[in-house]
Structures are given as structure tokens and as C-alpha cells.
Amino acid sequence: MRIAIAIIVIVGLIAFYFTMWKLNRKQQLPEEFKGSLPKCGSCSDSQCALSDSKGDTENE
């Protein structure tokens, strides 16, 4: 019985995490914060949230 409860709790936590992750991705950044994010040019990661130009590899 304890194993079943543990499995239900773990599956519930994973489902909660996934749901919150999906909802967070849909949320838009408020206008007052759009200009205050730091810009960085130290990497060429195309998936970086701080990168202005996605896929730009001029730093390589």
C-alpha cells in the first residue's frame, strides 16, 4: 500500500511540474520588464532566452 501511495505522489508531482511548465511558457512577459533583461554575448546558444537573434553564431 505504501508503494502505491508513493507512486501516486511521484506521478502527481511530475504532472504538477509539467502543467506549471506549460502554463509558464504561455505567459507573456510584462511590458515593464522587457527592457530590463540583461543582454549577453558570451555564448552562441540559439535556445538562450537572453539572445536577441536566434541562431546567430557571430560569437564563434
Write the layout of secondary structure elements.
Blueprint lengths: L1 H25 L4 H4 L26
Tally of individual helices? 2
The average pLDDT value, as a whole number, equals: 76
Strand content: under 5%
Low-confidence stretches: 54-60
Please give the alpha-carbon distance between the first and last residues.
Answer: 56 Å
Largest sheet: none
H and E order: HH
Structural class: mainly alpha
Which word captures the global form?
A: elongated
Helix content: 40-55%
Rounded radius of gyration (Å): 19 Å
Count of extended strands: 0
Description:
It contains two helices and no strands. Helices cover about 50% and strands about 0% of the residues. The longest helix has 25 residues, at about 1-25. The chain has helices spanning about 1-25, 30-35. With about 60 residues, it is an all-alpha fold.
Looking at this protein, list some descriptive labels:
60 residues; mainly alpha; 2 helices; disordered C terminus
Can you summarize this structure?
The chain has 60 residues and is mostly helical. It contains 2 helices and no strands.
